[in-house]
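User: Sequence recovery, please. Input:
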């Protein structure tokens, strides 16, 4: 996906840079200060690249380098400026893509952190529930031990009654809850 867009962007930049180069050529002809600036820029670039080439190929570097004529200098400068423009736009696209990617990655990381925090919170809640259930189970085991084996099989007592009442009295209380037992 990115590669076709990069190719399309490069093609668009090259297409845009051609009219830009033509406009630079026209401005170089019209404005003498700009023309002189471009010529000086091209002459310096010519000297630097020629010296580098001589060093790379092992030729003598103390030889005088002939300057370019004005038209070649203007053409070289305009070409160089066009290439610098293309390079700057391409570099800008790369920087933009890296920033976009890092922002996207940061959003993903934030979502992962939030999900992890939610899982931790849920885990803590579950741990609390397990601890509550364990304490209730322990409480039930202690009640069962206190009543003995028969305590497990007995029904739960009504509030306000004691275990010393006779079964007949218990039955009366259950039948007539509004009446008192003294009648």
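Assistant: Recovered sequence (183 residues):
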């Amino acid at each position: 996906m990115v590669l076709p867009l990069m190719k399309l962007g490069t093609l668009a930049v090259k297409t845009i840079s051609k009219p830009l180069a033509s406009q630079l050529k026209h401005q170089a002809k019209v404005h003498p200060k700009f023309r002189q600036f471009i010529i000086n820029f091209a002459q310096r670039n010519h000297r630097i690249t020629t010296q580098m080439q001589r060093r790379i190929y092992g030729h003598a570097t103390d030889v005088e380098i002939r300057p370019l004529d004005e038209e070649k200098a203007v053409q070289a400068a305009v070409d160089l400026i066009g290439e610098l423009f293309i390079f700057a736009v391409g570099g800008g696209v790369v920087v933009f893509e890296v920033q976009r990617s890092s922002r996207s990655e940061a959003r993903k990381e934030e979502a992962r952190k939030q999900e992890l925090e939610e899982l931790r919170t849920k885990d803590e809640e579950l741990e609390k529930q397990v601890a509550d259930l364990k304490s209730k189970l322990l409480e039930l085991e202690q009640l069962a031990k206190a009543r003995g084996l028969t305590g497990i099989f007995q029904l739960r007592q009504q509030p306000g009654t004691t275990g010393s009442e006779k079964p007949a009295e218990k039955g009366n209380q259950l039948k007539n809850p509004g009446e008192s037992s003294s009648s």
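Residues 8-114 form one domain.
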